[in-house]
């Protein structure tokens, strides 16, 4: 036992002495390395950092800063190498991430240099929360000596941190004062009516002559003013026309602008249009002559220097709203309609948005119609809306048939249905005299009602405005009296928004009263009905919307058997009312007024259309009818169509009977044609020759003998010659009186004359 304890004690003493020897050897190695390094770096390697903040400053500023740093380094016995002269050009000192500064920090951490020179701490940063942590990191973590040339800061001196903190706060204060001065100058320019660079797409700026004399600086530039740019403003008008008039979607407008290579705003950084830019154009109030300014302000994150936009209070921005009617591009009615459509788009997609605001799909009827019958055809069996399908989307079909939930198997040819529906509406409604009278009466009732209630509407709007003003005054009094309420500012902002909307309403009512509304006339209504018919036959979304309003939102189709055949046809039913047609007409030109009840407002007509497969005679019959209307004879039509004359008669008969019309009698029609024969008859062929002989003074009988034809043929030839030239044919007796010889010689007279000639 005694021997064992002695052994353990001896072992512990040996270990302690070995550990002490190891520590001493490590300390000696560090001291030797430190002495070696100090011997090698007699002239310490130094670096410098330079920066200027604006692209409008001189690039020579970097060289001037670097020269001052080199001079100071030489005076201190430091070696400032060119590869360690770090710089950032045209970047603000409030930014944390900078290319030159980031490289400097990486090299300082790896020990590439031991001393760092600045011309001023403002070159390092303009935010104290960036300056001081970065200086401490360089000095205490990286072991770099920091020297500011102009401010006398040296991290080897005691108290340097106090001086650096004070200077960093001064540099930070300079940025705030500079921002306030710039804003004050811009505000003065705005209130003076000059441009401050906030013009948008559709406008440009031109210099105001003589204003450069009022500005300071060596190269003072003149003030600028806003003008309408004729090139881009035309695109603004086109965008509003597509969206409001034609009902195009924003996505369609975006594609069309890119397809046409439309120009963009002067601040755009990419050549292509996108959805948000089109929506921004449609919602920009500057296009109606109201130019706001200062609605948003810059807010900078002091830790990173990142700038974000924040909204200013609405009451603070009202004094900067400029009324510039000479810069109006869009009329109030079109602009207000665009805002209603944009708001409707937002409300339509509210239900389909996820909690984070992204869209999760679209609801039925929330998209712009892609064709005339979009969402309009409804199955009479199950009530489902027909879908588009088939080759190139040419057909419409019931989606429930493939699921086994509906028996409607027949598909509807889309182009045929569109043409048949529009033709029926055109011939049965828009061109009908009874419907014309009913629509005219309904519009007149609406116009009289609008004229009657407009003064009351204006008075009600003004009373509402006064009530809103009283509410705003009470809210302001509560704020001035020190009443604290978290929702008070929000309520005040809401009331001011209501006031602006009410002012717009009053302005619209006053303009309507001043301009007056002309009473609808029959000539105007006929023109608008024709315009409606043309609009329905276009491929714009507005045509689909107009048709939906006319037919009451749906056309119900059902299958009908066809003479016992397995294949069925579809039959469509819908009803058109007078008030729907009147509303469609008023929507195109009149200020929208509610269509009032009248003696004919309940007039409606149920329409039934059989969507049957076209007969093989349909196309040829249309072509035959076209030639028929050109006043061609059936034989000529047959030659042009390369068919027989009997087939022409069959095609024409089909065309008239398929439209419940009576085919005109052939003889009656022939009498109206200029050319009544396929080959000109004899009297037409010799008409010119007969006329020449008549002018020579020959009797008709003599002419007939000479041309070896009947005397009646000669008479018809003379009549044809005059009538073909729209001249009156002369009377035969009258002509005979002008002739020297008024009758033909008889055979006895001719023999006697021949004998007398022989005797002589």
How are strands sequenced across the largest beta sheet? 2-1-3-4-5
The number of helical runs is 27
Structural class: alpha/beta
Helix content: 40-55%
User: What's the number of domains?
Assistant: 6
How many beta strands in the DSSP annotation?
18
The proportion of strand residues reads 5-15%
Question: In this structure, how is the largest beta sheet organized?
Answer: 5 strands, mixed
Radius of gyration from the alpha-carbon trace, in angstroms: 48 Å
This entry's quaternary arrangement is: single chain
Distance from first to last alpha carbon: 201 Å
Residue stretches low in confidence (pLDDT < 50, at least 5 long) are 1-15, 33-43, 588-597
The overall pLDDT, averaged over residues, is 80
Question: What is the approximate shape?
Answer: elongated
Strand and helix map with partners:
Blueprint: H1 2-40, E1 45-52, H2 60-75, E2 79-89, H3 99-109, E3 115-118, H4 121-124, H5 128-141, E4 145-148, E5 153-154, H6 160-191, E6 203-207, E7 224-228, H7 230-245, H8 250-259, H9 275-282, E8 290-291, E9 296-300, E10 307-311, H10 314-317, E11 322-323, H11 332-350, E12 377-379, E13 387-389, E14 395-397, E15 412-413, H12 414-430, H13 433-480, H14 488-515, H15 522-536, H16 541-550, E16 555-562, E17 565-577, H17 578-588, E18 604-611, H18 618-629, H19 634-641, H20 645-658, H21 666-670, H22 682-685, H23 687-695, H24 700-707, H25 711-724, H26 732-737, H27 747-759
Parallel strand pairs: 1-2, 1-3, 3-4, 12-16
Antiparallel strand pairs: 4-5, 6-7, 8-11, 9-10, 13-14, 14-15, 16-17, 17-18
Helix pairs in contact: 7-11, 13-14, 13-17, 18-20, 19-20, 23-25, 24-25
């Amino acid at each position: 036992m005694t021997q064992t304890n002695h052994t353990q004690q001896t072992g512990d003493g040996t270990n302690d002495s070995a550990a002490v020897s190891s520590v001493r050897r490590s300390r000696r190695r560090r001291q030797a390395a430190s002495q070696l390094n100090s011997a090698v770096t007699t002239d310490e390697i130094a670096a410098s950092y330079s920066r200027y903040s604006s692209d409008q400053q001189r690039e020579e500023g970097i060289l001037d800063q670097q020269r001052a740093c080199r001079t100071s380094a030489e005076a201190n016995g430091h070696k400032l190498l060119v590869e360690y002269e770090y710089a950032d050009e045209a970047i603000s000192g409030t930014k944390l991430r900078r290319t030159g500064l980031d490289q400097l920090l990486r090299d300082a951490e790896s020990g590439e240099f031991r001393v760092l020179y600045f011309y001023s701490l403002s070159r390092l940063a303009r935010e104290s929360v960036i300056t001081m942590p970065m200086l401490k990191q360089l000095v205490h973590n990286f072991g770099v000596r920091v020297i500011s040339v102009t401010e006398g800061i040296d991290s080897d001196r005691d108290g340097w941190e106090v001086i650096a903190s004070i200077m960093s706060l001064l540099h930070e204060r300079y940025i705030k004062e500079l921002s306030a001065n710039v804003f004050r100058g811009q505000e003065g320019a705005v209130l003076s009516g000059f441009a401050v660079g906030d013009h948008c797409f559709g406008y440009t700026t031109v210099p105001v002559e003589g204003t450069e004399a009022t500005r300071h600086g060596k190269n003072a530039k003149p003030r600028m003013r806003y003008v309408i740019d004729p090139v881009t403003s035309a695109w603004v008008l086109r965008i509003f026309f597509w969206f409001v008039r034609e009902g195009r979607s924003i996505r369609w407008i975006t594609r069309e602008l890119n397809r046409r290579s439309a120009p963009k705003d002067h601040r755009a950084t990419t050549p292509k249009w996108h959805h948000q830019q089109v929506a921004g154009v449609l919602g920009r109030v500057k296009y109606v002559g109201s130019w706001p300014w200062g609605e948003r302000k810059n807010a900078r994150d002091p830790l990173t220097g990142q700038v974000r936009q924040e909204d200013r209070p609405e009451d603070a921005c009202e004094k900067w709203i400029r009324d510039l009617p000479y810069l109006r591009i869009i009329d109030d009615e079109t602009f207000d309609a665009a805002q209603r459509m944009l708001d409707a788009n937002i409300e339509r997609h509210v239900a389909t948005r996820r909690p984070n605001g992204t869209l999760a799909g679209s609801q039925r009827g929330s998209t712009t119609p892609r064709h005339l019958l979009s969402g309009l055809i409804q199955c009479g069996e199950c009530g489902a809306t027909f879908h588009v399908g088939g080759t190139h989307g040419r057909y419409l079909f019931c989606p429930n048939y493939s699921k086994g939930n509906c028996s409607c198997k027949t598909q509807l040819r889309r182009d045929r249905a569109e043409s048949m529906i529009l033709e029926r509406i055109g011939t049965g409604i828009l061109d009908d005299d009874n419907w014309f009278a009913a629509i005219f009466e309904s519009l007149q009732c609406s116009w009289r009602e609008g004229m009657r209630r407009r003064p009351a509407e204006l008075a009600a709007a003004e009373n509402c405005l006064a009530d809103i003003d009283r509410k705003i005054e009470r809210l302001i009094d509560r704020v001035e009296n020190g009443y604290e309420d978290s929702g008070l500012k929000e309520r005040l902002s809401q009331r001011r928004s209501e006031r602006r909307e009410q002012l717009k309403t009053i302005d619209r009512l006053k303009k309507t009263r001043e301009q007056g509304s002309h009473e609808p006339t029959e000539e105007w209504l006929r023109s608008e009905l024709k315009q409606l018919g043309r609009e329905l036959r276009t491929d714009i979304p507005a045509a689909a919307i107009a048709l939906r309003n006319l037919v009451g939102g749906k056309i119900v189709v059902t299958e009908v058997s066809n003479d016992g055949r397995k294949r069925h046809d579809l039959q469509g039913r819908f009803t058109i009312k007078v008030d729907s047609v009147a509303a469609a007409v008023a929507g195109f030109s009149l200020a929208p007024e509610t269509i009032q009840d009248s003696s004919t407002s309940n007039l409606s007509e149920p329409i039934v259309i059989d969507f049957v497969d076209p007969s093989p005679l349909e196309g040829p019959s249309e072509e035959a009818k076209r030639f028929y209307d050109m006043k061609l004879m059936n034989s000529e039509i047959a030659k042009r169509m390369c068919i027989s004359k009997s087939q022409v008669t069959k095609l024409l008969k089909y065309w008239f009977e398929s439209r419940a019309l009576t085919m005109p009698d052939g003889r009656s029609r022939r009498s109206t044609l200029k050319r009544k024969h396929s080959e000109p008859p004899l009297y037409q062929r010799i008409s010119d020759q007969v006329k020449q002989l008549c002018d020579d003074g020959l009797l008709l009988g003599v002419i007939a003998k000479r041309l070896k034809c009947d005397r009646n043929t000669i008479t018809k030839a003379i009549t044809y010659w005059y009538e073909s030239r729209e001249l009156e044919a002369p009377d035969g007796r009258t002509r005979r009186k002008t002739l020297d010889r008024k009758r033909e010689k008889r055979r006895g007279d001719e023999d006697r004359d021949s004998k007398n000639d022989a005797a002589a």
